[in-house]
Design brief:
476 residues, alpha/beta, Aldehyde Dehydrogenase, Chain A, domain 1, Aldehyde Dehydrogenase, Chain A, domain 2, seven-stranded mixed β-sheet, six-stranded mixed β-sheet
């Protein structure tokens, strides 16, 4: 570890040692090799309560620093992340499984710095609502207090930043509970951030379901931010009810993409691939159902297969790979079951579909399935892995009916050479975000949130900042 007047820089080993428990701990395994990455302590309710109490005590002084000083500290936190980017990326790759290169570990750590800087830059000025006849009515946003954040295992560092950056920017303090699958990544990120931030404004408490349930129900937590499954989101709603907490929930998706007959198969093939297979398909807003018009169906299948078969999959620390293993056995089993259901139905396997026996790690090959019915489990259930069903349609109304048929609507996409036509189609899709000729691209300036059972509340941009404040009208 090296400390300068501006930043603290860790080696990979130094960062890992900084987050290891003094005794005991649960083993965290490299998802590609089965080797030990490190140990994580498993605190419980007592430790969580202590962290919340400390965060509550620290919040007034943090709020009192004001917007400008908090901006400066978030920018310094971004400096610290960037100074430690390689150590963070290596730990993330080993624990989560994603490769260093491609839109993966180094990309994720880079996004952490970018999101911190963007969040620091947003202005949230008072809004004048009425100013006439001696009356001035203005809308302000005040900090909520302590924000509880519960994160997922697929993008553990980046989504942690999505939660903590706007919360801190608004003058709240934060207590985070990371996924049991990827606690080391979040603890390491918090260690780097805390080298800049004041004591107790950010705490990470790893643990099991009991810790998450207590966080959601805690009387001193003013708001919970959660990214994860719809089922867990519903449990958080129930746990939070007695204290009438504010919630931001980014829940499961099963995103549809519609390819119109005027699209160029060769031009869109790589965009389709990364829309579906970024992070080896383990992304809430990944493309998970692809509807292609019958006129270009075979050409799209051919072009997509040609791209997919040339994307190397393997151990994340190998600089050549851009796809990695599934993060855990439970998810591997989900993907295996759904692909088998597609094969059993007679659907056509264009690529993959057969994991190698006796291979270490939870590797599932890149899989493309064609000629599949829209009611097949691989289409209806969210696979959250490297398997994409491709469904043929004859007319646009049919495609829209299929795309809108599920009770989720996080994201969607339309692919066409005619942008005006694509916008008309996008307006008929029931989803929080609809991308044109791309899928899953997020921007810290552009609000993001789901429709239907994909959650509620917005993240990112000024609208995301407002979600971390309590509106107050001063009228006189």
């Amino acid at each position: 570890m090296t400390t300068t007047s501006e930043t603290t820089t860790f080696t990979y080993q130094g960062l890992l040692e900084a987050i290891q428990p003094t005794s005991g701990g649960r083993r965290i395994i490299d998802q590609a090799t089965g080797e030990l990455v490190g140990l994580v302590a498993e605190p419980g309710i007592v430790e969580l309560d202590a962290a919340v109490q400390a965060a509550r005590a620290a919040q007034p002084a943090w709020e009192a620093r004001g917007h400008e000083e908090r901006r400066e500290l978030l920018n310094r936190a971004a400096d610290a992340v960037e100074a430690n980017a390689e150590a963070l990326a290596q730990l993330l790759s080993r624990e989560q499984g994603k490769p260093l290169n491609g839109p993966n570990a180094r990309f994720e750590v880079g996004a952490c710095g970018a999101w911190l800087r963007a969040t620091a830059s947003f202005n949230l000025d008072p809004e004048t609502l009425v100013e006439e006849d001696g009356t001035l009515a203005q809308l302000f946003y005040r900090p909520l207090g302590v924000v509880g954040a519960i994160g997922p295992w697929n993008w553990p560092m980046m989504i942690s930043i999505w939660q903590l950056a706007p919360a801190l920017r608004m003058g709240n303090t934060v207590v985070m509970k990371p996924s049991e699958y990827t606690p080391l990544s979040v603890l390491a990120l918090a260690t780097v951030l805390s080298s800049v931030l004041p004591a107790d404004v950010l705490a990470v408490v790893p643990g099991g379901r009991d810790v998450g349930e207590r966080l959601a129900a805690h009387e001193d937590i003013a708001k919970v931010m959660f990214t994860g499954s719809t089922a867990t989101g519903k449990a958080i709603i129930r746990s939070s009810a007695d204290t009438i907490k504010r919630l931001t929930l980014e829940l499961g998706g099963n995103d549809a993409g519609i390819v119109l007959p005027d699209a160029d198969p060769l031009a869109i093939a790589e965009g389709l691939f990364w829309g579906a297979f970024i992070n080896t398909g383990q992304t809430c807003a990944a493309l998970k159902r692809l509807y292609v018009h019958e006129d270009i169906y075979d050409k799209v299948c051919e072009a997509l297969t040609a791209v997919a078969k040339n994307m190397p999959m393997g151990v994340g620390l190998d600089e050549n790979n851009v796809l990695g293993p599934l993060q855990n056995k439970a998810q591997f089993d989900v993907v295996s079951r759904l692909v088998q259901a597609a094969k059993d139905s007679g659907a056509r396997v264009l690529l993959g579909g057969e994991p190698e026996a006796e291979q270490p790690g939870y590797f599932y090959p890149t899989t493309l399935i064609a000629d599949i019915d829209n009611s097949n489990p691989l289409v209806v259930e969210e696979q959250f892995g490297p398997a994409l069903p491709i469904i043929k349609y004859s007319n646009l109304d049919e495609a829209l009916e299929m795309a809108n048929s599920l009770n989720v609507g996080l994201g969607a996409s339309v692919w066409s050479s005619d942008t005006a036509k694509a916008r008309q189609v996008a307006a008929r899709i029931q989803a929080g975000t609809v991308w044109l000729n791309k899928h899953g691209a997020v921007d810290p300036r552009v609000p993001f949130g789901g429709a239907k059972q994909s959650g509620y509340g917005l993240e990112f941009g000024v609208e995301g900042l407002k979600q971390l404040g309590s509106p107050q009208i001063i009228n006189g």
